[in-house]
Fold:
Amino acid sequence: MGTLAVGDFKVRKAPYIPLLPENVSHVLPCHTYRGLQKNESHEAYVARLAQNLEDEFQRVGPETVCAFMVEPIVGTAAPAPATPGKPKAPHQTSKSSAKPSDPATRPSAPSSSTKKSSKPSAALEVQRIIKEDGLVSNVARMGDLLSSLLRERFAAHPYVGDIRGRGLFWCIEFVADRAAKAPFPAALNLAKRMANRGLERGYDISLFAANGSVDGWLGDHFLLCPPYIVGESDVEEIVKRVVKVVESVFEDVKREGLVKEMVDGLFERGKGRGVAEWYWAERWVDKWGWAG
Structure:
């Protein structure tokens, strides 16, 4: 319950809201693609986030705060590396506002847990191999290659809004409108379609599908997380298979039957889903030429 309260992955969190502790508050996430305002510099963005954190300390009372939690690279909900300068900003703010001995717990950002090995010797052996085989250096080299190939193949894709990541942890976020950064309707379940297609014979790639990068509910993206030992030919094959999956799913989406099914579902549930999905249903009717 404590971990759910600290995080903000709404799909997981929503069923347990009545049970969650109330001594937790949240601040703006560091998500450059979604959060950086027009004509705002990265420095100004970091300063705005730091001020948001400071304001939250003052709102709840600095004397009630014992911890601030943040992920340097956000995981499932919106895989995004921190904006330059962001890791230092919370430290500088918290030093001036909160005391280590304050009793109440008010974490302010998503946090992930790690599972510790029950065999210390196994953990040490892993670290030895990482060091002796130069795997951290390999992650940097192969990460640069993966970044380059993903951008080469998807930067101009009409429905790819953002390609982001670091090392061997990368994400592609899909949007229905690149200029507006508008997400696809949730009813389309785009990311899940891609993950399922990747597991089919002939595609053969595991994609970690996720959603919620817009508001916790809307937004489709998937993660690529190759192992530390991956080589150049592996990275090239990974990107080749990802391209095949994405092209295949969008071909499916463009077929009249799937669009009609999606629009029917949206209009049937429209009153309970809000204006946004009604709007996108109409846009998709327009875009793919279905009417009836």
Summary: The radius of gyration is 21 Å. The longest strand covers residues 160-166.
